[in-house]
Amino acid sequence: xxxxxxxxxxxxxxxxxxxxxxxxxxxxxxxxxxxxxxxxxxxxxxxxxxxxxxxxxxxxxxxxxxxxxxxxxxxxxxxxxxxxxxxxxxxxxxxxxxxxxxxxxxxxxxxxxxxxxxxxxxxxxxxxxxxxxxxxxxxxxxxxxxxxxxxxxxxxxxxxxxxxxxxxxxxxxxxxxxxxxxxxxxxxxxxxxxxxxxxxxxxxxxxxxxxxxxxxxxxxxxxxxxxxxxxxxxxxxxxxxxxxxxxxxxxxxxxxxxxxxxxxxxxxxxxxxxxxxxxxxxxxxxxxxxxxxxxxxxxxxxxxxxxxxxxxxxxxxxxxxxxxxxxxxxxxxxxxxxxxxxxxxxxxxxxxxxxxxxxxxxxxxxxxxxxxxxxxxxxxxxxxxxxxxxxxxxxxxxxxxxxxxxxxxxxxxxxxxxxxxxx
Length: 423
Ligand code: AMP
Ligand code: GLY
Description:
- The protein is globular, with a radius of gyration of 21 Å.
- α8 (about 130-140) runs antiparallel to α9 (about 165-175).
- Helices cover about 30% and strands about 25% of the residues.
- The protein is an alpha+beta fold.
- β13 and β14 form a beta hairpin.
- Among the domains are: about 1-95, 3-Layer(aba) Sandwich (Rossmann fold); about 125-190, 2-Layer Sandwich (Dna Ligase, domain 1), CATH 3.30.1490.20.
- Strands 12, 15, 18, 19, 22 and 23 form a six-stranded antiparallel β-sheet that branches. Strands 3-2-1-4-5 form a five-stranded parallel β-sheet.
- The structure holds adenosine monophosphate and glycine.
- Glycine binds near residues 233, 291 and 295.
- Adenosine monophosphate binds near residues 159, 191, 193 and 198.
């Protein structure tokens, strides 16, 4: 079978690595891909939202399945585009249609969905510029810290957590009236602050049946001890030690099942991954957010622990037969540490040559922002590499990831030395 993966990050390199292990695979394409995917697949320089160019590629290369990495093409309706095209409609797309992708594309929609299906989440109300005064009044009723969320996609930056009431009011106005996050903050969800420890659960569903994949925890802040600016993710660990069987049973019963049943009740067709961002408050799970794709860098620790053939899993997703599959999970821990360009998540330089990659043998190096040029691997983004290792305990795995990182270098390379510090 010929498969196309859309995306260019560490998540997509991990998908490519896992799919490439399947003997059901004939040709693998990644659009646009990176230097890592170039080694195991054919990169095609097409933007993930250029649906017409994707169509042409799919038809010329006889692609038989499309796996969508990031949220943008899903929210913009790539799956619907396939279903509405005579020549593409029978080619399975892994990732929801617009009607499901809006769970990530609109925080308000996600909150309403959770309320409808009794999924535990923080109390909230949403506001527009017309209801700014009501927004101020709602903030006055809450206790600090105040959580403000731009309703739409804001490249992971649309959530503000503020300790001061006046500052919260000013930011609410900034978002609603002065378009701080553009159109994404034309509507703002204000939420009750939940205090606890975060983790993520990933579910692969065909819309009716589902498999709960291994849990993971990511480290979003740039600085050690979870300080400094938010990033796309600086590292991850799977499984999450504090997500024990009792807790996971609650997650299954109160969150995963009602979510999948919610898709059916609301007639939302959903074939793909659901990323459920959770917070454990005391012993109880609450949903912070839904994403309609896998996480990055969580994928770099979740997929390496899945033993099943990836193409078989994706085919069962497309065919609605996930109930026939038993998920097999590697008992070992997997960790990943992300090497970023110096300066990231603020301004940083690209085009730095990366050396030492071929000397790494105890870890898997997944590429994120990399590019092949004249046979050299150059950095091309903020997050450059994700170095994944296995171990009996997460400390063993982390030790290997850090030893491997010592062998790799590029100008101004930076990484957090404390991944897993809180576990
Ligand atoms: P989100 O984009 O919704 O995942 O929010 C980004 C981050 O803000 C989350 O990973 C949490 O750390 C934090 N956050 C979001 N909502 C809440 C909440 N209700 N209470 C506490 N922290 C939150
Ligand atoms: N690591 C968080 C995300 O993928 O959104």
